[in-house]
Amino acid sequence: MSISGPEELAGMRAAGAVVALMLEAMKSAVRPGITTAELDEVGARVMREQGAQSAPAMVYKFPGVSCISVNDEAVHGIPGKRALASGDLVKLDVTVEKNGFMADAAVTVPVGEVSVEGKKLMACAQRAFAKAMLVARAGFRVSEIGRVIEREVRRSGFSVIRDLGGHGIGRTIHEAPRVPNYADPEAHEILTEGLVITVEPIIAAGSGRALTARDRWTVVTADHSASAHYEHTLVITKGQPMLLTA
Length: 246
Hints:
Mean pLDDT: 98
CATH class: Alpha Beta
Distance between the termini: 19 Å
Low-confidence stretches: none
Oligomer: single chain
Strand content: 25-35%
């Protein structure tokens, strides 16, 4: 969506605030032994208290409140009986609807003590996001976001998962434009003031090729290498974008 006035901005801010609260609660609950279903319920309690709903469940009938993915699971992991173990990388991906507006964010959290490679992978995803903020501004092409992200990821020795990326958001989860994590020449749209998008480096320690698991939801790396995901919903301005989920 493109924000046209203060009421829409307030609505998006309210949805973004719920996402931020859920992620903080879930991050604080991450520990060895907790199951992904238990983590999902931590977020769900906050969501209900804030008068919001799970957008993936509403729009796509996703079988959980939030997407929780572990290690080689890149995105769309279904919460369940899996218990987290020390050394895991868990991706918490939260999208909510509140009063007709939707916001989306994700973070990768270490469980206990993780490997040096795992630490570098998480840091790379955040660094790529930060560098993308320099071009996530009115007047730049969408493809510039992907160009900056992929350059930083490759420089760090990792790969972007090209099948996955950011998107417009607002009244539903996935709106135009598509925001690839690489310099896609087809992503030629010009970013305009007020446009609401997600920027979300989704990266892997291996080749970056991905496939969908048997559950038909979870996207995993084809070579089972570790993955990391970092995301915020933001509003495009002439300068520094406005982060709604931070």
